[in-house]
Amino acid sequence: MALVGINQDEKAIKVLTKAVKNDPKDERSWLHLALAKRNLEDFEDARKDVAKVLAISPNSEDALMLNADILNKAGHISAALDAGRKALKIVPSNINLLKLTATLSSGQGMIDEALSLRHQAVAVAPQSVGILKALASQLLMSGRQADARSVWLKVLELDPTNFITMEAVSYTHLTLPTKR
User: pTM score, two decimals?
Assistant: First the structure.
C-alpha cells in the first residue's frame, strides 16, 4: 500500500482505519495500519493491530515479524527476542525474522544462538552478501577468525569490488596465528 511511508503515516492511518472498519478481517489493512502506527512510535496501538491479524491468521509471517519488530523498537528487547524465537518455530525460513532474532540474541550476549540463527539465514539465502557479512562479523566478534575469513572470502567472491570486505579479509588474515 503506497500510503505508508515518509510523512504519509498519519494519512495512511485515517484511510486504513476506515478500511478495517469496513472489513475487520482485512489482514493487509491491519498490518499496514500497525506499520504506520509503529512508524509514528505508537507501539501499544501497533501491537493491538498486529494482535488482530494474528487472531485472524495465527501463522501470518508478516504479523509475526512485525510483532517482534515493534517490541524491539519499543525497547522491550527480551520480549522481542521471545517473540522472534516463537515466530521462528512457525516460520523458520523467514529471513527478516532470522536476522532480527540473531541481532537480538547477539545483543543479549547469546553468541551461540546468534551464530546458529545466522547460519540458518545463510542456508535460506546463501548468495546474500548482507547475510554473509553478518555471519562473518558475528564469527569475528566471537573470536573465530579462521571461520570469519572463509565467510569473508565467499563475500568477496560475490562482491569483488567491496572495499570493506577487502579490509575484513585482510584483517582476518593478519589476526590469524602464523604457522612456524
Answer: 0.83
Encode 136-157: b = buried (16+ Cβ within 10 Å), e = exposed. Answer: bbbbbeeebbebbbebbebbbe
C-alpha cell of residue 60: 501470518
Distance in angstroms (rounded) separating the CA atoms of residues 111 and 49:
33
Question: What are 145-172's pLDDT values in tens digits?
Answer: 889 989 988 998 998 887 777 777 776 6
Entry field: residues in the chain: 180
Residue written as grid cell 527478516: 96
Give the CA count within 13 Å in the CB-facing half-sphere of 148: 24
Q: How far apart are CA 47 and CA 40, in angstroms?
A: 13
Question: 115, 131 in Cβ contact below 8 A?
Answer: no
For 36, residues 6+ apart whose C-beta sits below 8 A from its C-beta are 3, 4, 9, 10, 12, 13, 16
DSSP 4: S
Query: Can you tell me the mean pLDDT for 64-89?
Result: 96
Report yes or no: 172 and 148 within 8 Å, Cβ to Cβ.
Answer: yes
Q: What is the DSSP letter of 159?
A: -
